[in-house]
Amino acid sequence: MPAEAGQATALVLVVGVSGSGKTTVAGLLAERLGWPHRDADEFHSPAARAKMAAGHPLTDADRAPWLAAIGAWMDREAAAHRPAVVTCSALKRSYRDRLLHGRPGVRLLYLHGTRELVRARLEARHGHFFPAALLDSQFADLQEPQPDEHPVVVEIDQPPPAVVAAALSLLGLTAPAAPSAPSEEAPMSEQAPRSAGPTGEQWELRHGGQRAVVVELGGALRHYEADGVPLLDGFAADEPVTSGRGQLLVPWPNRVGGGRYRFDGADLQLPLSEPERHNAIHGLLRWVPWRLLGRSGEAVRVGTTLHPQPGYPFLLEVSAEYRLTVDGLEVRVGAVNTGTARAPYGVGQHPYLTVGTDLVDTALLTVPASHRLTTDDEGLPTGEEPVEGTEYDFRTARPIGATALDTAFTGLERDGTGRAVVRLAHPSGQRGTDLWLGEGTRYVQVYTGDTLGEPGRRRRGVAVEAMSCPADAFRTGAGLTVLEPGAGHVLRWGLRPWVAAGGAALR
Ligand SMILES: Nc1ncnc2c1ncn2[C@@H]1O[C@H](COP(=O)(O)OP(=O)(O)O)[C@@H](O)[C@H]1O
Ligand SMILES: O=C(O)[C@H](O)[C@@H](O)[C@H](O)[C@H](O)COP(=O)(O)O
Q1: 18 Cα–ligand 1 center, Å
Q2: Whose CA is nearest to atom 15 of ligand 2?
Q3: In this structure, which residue's CA is closest to atom 15 in ligand 1?
Q4: Distance 115 CA to ligand 1 centre (A)
Q5: Which residue ranges form the domains of the chain, and what is each CATH number?
Q6: pLDDT score for 124
Q7: Could you check whether the bond before residue 161 is cis, i.e. omega within 30 degrees of 0?
Q8: Cα–Cα nearest to 405, from 369, 357, 456
Q9: Closest residue (by CA) to atom 10 of ligand 1?
Q10: How far is the CA of 160 from the centre of ligand 1 (A)?
Q11: What are phi and psi of 149, to 5 degrees?
C-alpha cells in the first residue's frame, strides 16, 4: 500500500551508530508501511568499503560523496512522490544538515542505545564488512540529534518489532494492521547508574505553552500545565507519589474485594494492597519502574513487562504513550498478552484535576453519565442506579459543593467521535479542563479525595479516572476484558484545557 493520503511525512531517515539496528529497523518499518527502503551501505564506494574493512574509519572527505549519493536518491524519491525509508549513520550534525537541508518532508528517527549493547550486537553480527573494532570511532564521531532537529528517539533495548511500533507511533504514522505481539525476548541491558529521585527518571514533553512530565516510577503522569497554569494536582520531582496521583492502574483499576477471584477454573489470591479494607487496589504496576521506549519533543512512550506472579499468573507487555498536541494531552495505554494463557484485564489512570480553586467545592463539574454504581463499606459495587434526581446527577454543570464523591459513573453519553467528556470548570465558568474518555473506556471514577491519607490534600483536586471496567471486575466479570494469547487492549483518554469566549486555550 502506498503512503496514506494526508500524511505529511514523505521520508524517514533512520540514523544511529553502526550496529544500532538501522538496517533491521528500516526494513521492518518499510515493510509495515509498504514503502520502499534503501540502506546507506549500498551507497558506499568500493574504496570506502575496503577502507572500513581494513579497519580504518572514514573521514569527512570520504563521507562527502556518500552523503551526496544518499541525498540524490532522496530527491529522486521525493520527485516521484514516493514516500521512503532510508538509513544513514549520519553521526555528525553537519552530515544530517546536509541530508535534511532543503528537504522539509524528511523526519529523523534516531536509534539510541548504550555502547555496551551496540558492541554486543556487532560482535554477534556476521558477514558484514564493518568491524566491531571500529565502534569506538563511531561513538567518537557521534553528535546526538538535538531538539531543534526534531528527532524521534527510540530506545533499542527492545525487540525490533517493538522498536518499529514505537517509531511508527511517535512519528504519527499509521501502518496497515500487523500482528501486534512482540514475540522475541528483549536482550538484557546494562543497568546504568542513575541519580534516582523518589520517582526516578523524569521525561518532559512540550508543545507550545504546554508542558507535561512523565516519571519512570509507574510510568505516571506527574505534571501537566498550559501557559504556566497547572492543570493537575500532581506531585513535585522530589516528592514520592501519594494517593494514586497520575498513576497507571494495570491490570485492574480500583479494587478487587478480598483480593480473591476465580478465573478459568483457578482460585487466585492477590496481595492485599489496601489492607485496611481488605482489598487489592489499583493493579500491580504502580510501584515498579517503567522503561523509556522512545520519545520526541512532544511525546514519550514508556513500557514494562508484567510478569506472572502470585494472584496474577499471566504475562503482559504494557506500554503507555503520552503526547501533547494542539488539542491538549493524549494518552494511549496498550497491553498485549504475550503469555500462553487467557488473562483477565482492566486498566485505568488516576490524574487529579484542578482549576486552581482552594477546594474543589466551588469548582463546576459535568459528568455526562446516566448511572452510577452503588458501593458497600469496602468500596465494592453493590448495584447500579440512575443518577436522575440524586446528588450524583452532574449531567449539567454545577458546583461540587459538599458532595463527597468516590463514585463510578457509567451510561456515558458520547459525542460523534465516540468520546465522553467530563468537565471541570473554574467557578467563573470561563475556563477549565475537559477530560475525554475514548477507546476502551466504559466507566469513569470521580473521587473528591475525602479519605486521603494526607488531610491537607483532601478535596484539593478531583480524581477523574478513565477506566475500562468498574471496581471488582475480576470477581463480578462486569466490564472485564479477557485477553486471549497474542491479543491486546487499548485505552485512550486525554485532557483538553479551554477558555471561554473566543478561543483555544492552547498555543
Ligand atoms: N532491536 C534489536 N534487538 C536485537 N537485535 C537487534 C535489534 N536491532 C538489530 N539487531 C541485530 O543487531 C545487529 C546490528 O543490526 P543492524 O540492523 O545491522 O544495524 P545497523 O544497520 O545500524 O548497522 C544485527 O545482527 C541485527 O540482527
Ligand atoms: O479514586 C479511587 O479510585 C479510589 O476509590 C480512591 O479510594 C483512591 O484511589 C485511593 O484513596 C488512592 O489510592 P492509594 O492510596 O492506594 O494510592
Answers
A1: 9
A2: 243
A3: 21
A4: 13
A5: 11-171 (3.40.50.300), 202-503 (2.70.98.10)
A6: 84
A7: no
A8: 369
A9: 21
A10: 8
A11: -90, -5
Looking at 126-282, which runs of residues are DSSP E strands?
152-155, 202-207, 210-215, 221-226, 229-230, 247-249, 255-257, 260-263, 266-269, 279-281
The set of cell numbers assigned to 496 is 483538553
Per the structure block, which three cell numbers stand in for 311?
494472584
- Taking the CA of 122 as reference, the closest ligand is 1
Ligand nearest to the CA of 276: 2
CA distances from 61 to 43, 68, 130, 302 (A): 15, 11, 19, 40
C-alpha closest to that of 320 among 251, 254, 248: 248
Nearest residue (CA) to ligand 2, atom 14: 243
The set of protein residues with a Cβ atom below 6 angstroms from ligand 2 is 243-244, 254, 274, 281-282, 379, 406, 445, 447, 451, 463, 465
* Closest listed ligand to the CA of 125: 1
pLDDT along the chain (507 residues), means of 10: 46 95 96 92 91 88 93 91 93 95 93 94 80 84 94 96 94 71 40 69 96 98 97 96 97 98 98 97 98 96 98 98 98 98 98 97 98 97 98 98 97 96 97 98 97 92 98 98 98 96 54
Identify the pLDDT of residue 131.
74
Question: Is the overall model pTM greater than 0.80, yes or no?
Answer: yes
CA dist., res. 317 & res. 300, Å (int): 17
| Model ipTM value | 0.82
Instruction: Quote the cell numbers at residue 230.
Output: 497547572
Q: Indicate the length of the chain as a whole number.
A: 507
Residues facing 87 on adjacent strands = 14
HSE-up (13 A, CA, CB side) for residue 177: 2
In whole angstroms, give the CA distance from residue 76 to residue 62: 23
Question: Which residues are CB-neighbours of 148 under 8 A, at least 6 positions away?
Answer: none
Cell of 411: 451510561
Q: Tell me, using a 6 A CB cutoff, whether residue 112 lines ligand 1.
A: no
